[in-house]
Amino acid sequence: MACEVAAVEPALPDVEARMRLAHRLARRNHLEGTGGPFAGEGDEVEHLTGFDEGPMRPDRKEQLAARGVEVRTDVLRAEALATFREYGERPDVIVYNGGGRGRSTPAAPQVR
């Protein structure tokens, strides 16, 4: 993976290029057995992966913005959901939820 990251331009031109790289690395991460996709939000991601992060603050985006963090959602959403779906369909995935309990994730139904 280090070679792949080293080959990336020093500055990616836009948010879509950065997200394509993040999606590619997230997919590779789970395919190589080194973890799951990096991040996502919402009921659809929980449904596809079986991972429940627990309650999220309703004002989380505003709180991050107040700290100078720009929050952008739904960038290349279809690509992200494809990676989450692929991860959730794996028969060997163990998901550790917020309560510290691990469980195997059954194959997720197709959500379109």
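Above is the first protein from milestone M3; the second protein from the same milestone is given next.
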Amino acid sequence: MSASHDDEIIILLKEKNIHITQPRMFVLQMICINCKQVFSAKDFIATGQHIDRTSIYRILQLFVKSKIVNKVPNTKGIVEYTLHQDFSGKPMFSNNRVYMDNGKT
């Protein structure tokens, strides 16, 4: 992860008034690196990082509340998440770049 990319993540967290922590940075970095269409908490837990399951779920809930990701319930009963999109359909993260919406969505 490049320094400028980390800077963009920090800017996004600050614009959303989210306190910057290593676990939150890690989750956003994983989202940027993988750029998967849909992901679950298990995707982050499986990385082997020293972040407990509860923290992962709390971070994802915070990101849902802050409109960084959206919850996507499925028929299996597993909550998955997708990157938040603004009204133009542009995702917050695309091609490993972070797009700011300045809270206007």
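Note on the second protein: DSSP finds four helices and five strands in the chain.
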